[in-house]
Amino acid sequence: MQRIRHSGALLATILATAVAVAPARRAMHTRALRVSGGANATSLAPEAKAGLLDGGGGGSLATRLFGVIRKTVRMTLRLLGFGKDGGDEDTAPATKKKVAAKKKRRSPARASPAQRQAQRISRELTDFVENPPDGCKVSVGKNLNVWIVTMTGAEGTIFAGEKYKLRVSFPADYPTSPPSCYFLEPTPRHPHVYTNGDICLNLLGNGWRPTITVAQLSLSILSMLSSAKTKGIPQDNAVHAASAPGKPQEGWMYHDDSC
């Protein structure tokens, strides 16, 4: 910008000088016509033609000065970024590269699915630690994709004061799919909790929505424990107990009489 201001001032000075020199140039032109035979002559005298057209190679001082001004104006226009036709074809390639580099820096690359997932999990963890649900506490080791949520039974319930640990891990397509979630031993004796730790809860299956967070899920599980009137195990526990916990709950039936 500083360079452009200086160039503009230089151009203004040159134009002012050109205006001042113009009368002298016209006088020179008139004398040349007289030498060659008047205003109706078809050609200029050789010495006048050389002085008017060579841009400073010969002729009077005024003629040479005008030629210098003409060349300087062209150089100034190029300095300002204009080509022969007023365009920008003479712009330096280095300048174009700098502009392209700036645009590239201003347009950050879009995050990959894995990066977006990591950002989502990190935000959830921060929110959970700073604003934990009542009766829940989270701890995470080196692997940020595996959480341990410690739950404490609410006062006034059959699980009051009892502590249980919930293992939460995130699949590759989280939050499109729900996290893997099950109780570690010892598991609570609840009609919706199998002895292998699996939890019969539709939020872990067809009731899952990507907007649900682990904090909300933990609160729902603790609420499920708190609502129980008696302790017991699911009716089909014998069939399910031998399987590994935490598998996707595809095809599960979420009814009180079938869990």
UniProtKB/TrEMBL annotation:
Pfam families (UniProt xref): UQ_con
Record's compositionally biased regions (Basic residues): 95-108
The UBC core domain, residue ranges: 116-259
Domain of life: Eukaryota
Region feature (Disordered): 86-120
Ranges in a coiled coil: none
Alphabetically ordered keywords of this record: Signal
PROSITE patterns registered for this protein in UniProt: UBC_2
Compositionally biased region (Low complexity): 109-120
Signal peptide: 1-24
PANTHER family assigned to the protein according to its UniProt record, in alphabetical order: UBIQUITIN-CONJUGATING ENZYME E2
Name of protein: UBC core domain-containing protein
Species assigned in the record: Pelagomonas calceolata
Lineage of producing organism: Eukaryota, Sar, Stramenopiles, Ochrophyta, Pelagophyceae
